Amino acid sequence: MNAEKILDAKGLACPMPIVKTKKAIGEIESGQVLEIHATDKGAKSDLTAWAKSGGHELLQDTEEDGVLKFWIKKC
Questions:
Q1: 37-65 tens-digit pLDDT
Q2: Fewest 10 Å CB contacts: which of 2, 35, 68, 74?
Q3: Predicted TM-score of the model (pTM)
């Protein structure tokens, strides 16, 4: 999946992946996609809830070798 911006939040503990995601999503336009890489296991529930509460769309999430990857479309 193509993303306009990639955020590397690996090695960061809660709440930093959310803090950095909020900043990064503000740097892209509506309709564009932000890809986030995180290693904090809590990021899955945190980012899912954050996207929903912010009116954004979580397009996909996967896990590869302990790295959680998320694609969030800015609405």
A1: 999 999 999 999 999 999 999 999 999 99
A2: 2
A3: 0.94
